[in-house]
Structures are given as structure tokens and as C-alpha cells.
Amino acid sequence: MPTIANKEIGPIGYGLMGLTWRPQVTPDSQAFPVLRTALAQGSNFWNAGEFYGNAPVHVQNLELINRYFTAHPADAEKVVLSVKGGIDLATLHPKGDAESVRKSIDNVLKILDGKKFLDIFECARVDPAVPVEETIAVLAEYVKAGKIGGIGLSEVSANTIRRAHAVHPIAAVEVEVSLWARDIFTSKFGGVAETCAELGIPVVAYSPLGRGFLTGKLRREEIPEGDFRRGMERFQEGAFERNYRVVEGLQKVADRKGCSMAQLAIGWVVKMAERQVIVPIPGATTEERVRENTEVVGLTEEDMREIEEIVGKVEIVGGRYNKYAEGHLMA
Predict the structure, then answer these.
(1) pLDDT of 324 above 60
(2) 3-state helix, strand, coil in the chain (%, to 5)
(3) 75: Cβ–Cβ under 8 A, 6 or more apart, which residues?
(4) How many domains are there within the chain?
(5) In this structure, what CATH number is given to the domain that contains residue 120?
(6) Is residue 235 part of a domain?
């Protein structure tokens, strides 16, 4: 079993973003059974965000967590909770200065209200105006005081990981990893995966399903107004259709394996985790999808070679985000 922040977790975690960061927040009557199902399926590493909600407050994700553990207090000790913060809630711009970091952590702790210990506080992005050493030094104070269990980073370069880790051990590094986002395994970004493996830092793989694209069930015209994917380059008209060729190729492998496209995509990340600790955190808003996502499909080396050949033939069109957000990736 992999460990994060010195606690055992299942091979597949759960991302809570989709429950609240959408035009219509998922009601508790639906969200609570989904969370309980995730835990029952062994997905006890939960990834949340201070800003995973709708304007102007943005904190609906944390409020949901508070209500859940108020209703199910016995589950608190079973879950390893990581919360992203360090973001200006008005502008969603990274804020890594001491005052802003303390404000963010204190706000997270206030909303959780002791219902759940904060196992990891994670800087959502690196503030380009503040040396990462200064940000980590503030977080280290909270670890020493016992207010948080560990420190996480998200979308950081290998150099930033090393600089941060030299100040205080990093509990986890979160980055987008999927069949159409394999940057951390390439030299393009300075070997993020290799650096994490060398330093013994688990990788948390968000969006292993490409924000629904790799399920093979998403259609561009079905993305609702207000959905943040509408602003992402890979989902724009023309790019979406060209990128869909990778799904068409991979569907043949899924059919042969007798699994869904989602299971194949997550299975690929799980197979990559045989080389180092990588924990995919697919999100889902229904119990059925949680069960599907947590049914591990074993892939052979032959399967992996076939997948690599298919993916290698398709040039993915568009960045992972938009022009503004791309500037904060792998910083």
C-alpha cells in the first residue's frame, strides 16, 4: 500500500473538485453517498481545494467536507485529506507571501472546524513573486505546531521541488497525469517524475481521465455553459475533434480488454505507479462512476506498448489550460 504523510492510502484516490466547482453544486443528498462509496472502495486519499466553489465565496468544497464529517465523524480517521490553497479567492491568483499563506491555512482550518485534521496543505500554484523557500518556511511552522500534517505542491518544476524539499520534506507533488498529459515523464519539464522518485515524494495524478475527455463519452456540445472546460484550449472547436483520434484508437484496446475507456485510462496511471508512487485521483459525482473508476484493470507490458504506439501517433492540439493559466504550470 502506498503512503502519503506517513499514512496508508489506497492505490486510487478521489478528487472532490467536481462536486462543487461547477455551475450547479452537487447536493449533500447525492454527494454524501458518493463520498461514502469512495471510502468503501478503498479511495481514502481525498483531494480538495479552498477555492473549489463558485464565486464570490469559492469555499463550497470545504463546507461540504465539514458537513460530511459532521454527519459521519467516524470516517475522519479513515481519510487522508489534502487541501489546495494559497490562492487569492477574489482573483484566483497564486499568493505565496507569508501573510497570504497564513490567511489561507487559517481559513481552511476555520471552515473544517476540527471535524477533520488537515493532513496536507498544498500550494495550488507557485507565486512567481515570492521565492518558494519563503512559502515553505511558513508552512513548516504549521507542521511543527501540529496544525497540519504535511506540505504539498502542485504543478511545479523539478528545480522548485528540490528547493522546497531542502527547506522541509514535501509530502506530495500534484500534477496532471493522463494519457494526454504525460509531461512529467519527459525531459521537457526537467524530469519531474524522476526527481520525485529520487526524493521519495509521491505523485498525485489529477485529471487522469482528461477532465472526462478520456472516458470516450464526452461530446463538446454537451459541455454546459459556465463549465471551466469551455475556456481550455483542448476543448475548443477543431482541437476537440482532432484530439478525439486518441480516444478512437484507445477504445480498441479497451474493447479487447473488456473494460471501459475510463478504466483503461486509470489503469495506465496505476501501471505507471509500479515504477514509483503515483496515485490517480479521478473525480466522480455518482456512486456508479466511483465504482467504475476504482475497479483496477491490469495492463500487461504488451498492452502498455500498444497504448504507447497509439498515443504516440496523435499530436494533442492545444495547451492543458488557457494562455493565462499555462503560465503557472511547472513553475
Answers:
(1) no
(2) 45, 15, 40
(3) 36, 39, 68, 69
(4) 1
(5) 3.20.20.100
(6) no
Burial class (CB in 10 A: 0-12, 13-18, 19+), 290: buried
Q: Is residue 218 part of a domain?
A: no
User: For 34-93, how does the pLDDT look when each residue is reduced to its tens digit (9 = 90+)?
Assistant: 999 999 999 999 999 999 999 888 999 999 999 999 999 999 999 999 999 999 999 989
Rounded-to-integer distance, Cα 284 and Cα 186, Å: 29
What's the whole-model pTM score?
A: 0.93
- Whether residue 182 lies inside any domain: the answer is yes
Q: Is residue 231 part of a domain?
A: no
Distance, first Cα to last Cα, the chain: 30
Which structural domain, as residue segments, surrounds residue 131?
Answer: 3-213+262-296
Where do we find the cell 497504448?
307
How far is the C-alpha of 68 from the C-alpha of 54, rounded, in Å?
19
Q: Is 285 helix (H, G, I), strand (E, B) or coil?
A: coil
**52 catalytic per annotation:** yes
Name the catalytic one among 14, 52, 206, 321. 52
pLDDT tens, 179-238?
999 989 876 666 899 999 999 999 999 999 999 999 988 888 788 887 878 888 898 989
105, 112, 92: which is closest to 135 by C-alpha? 105
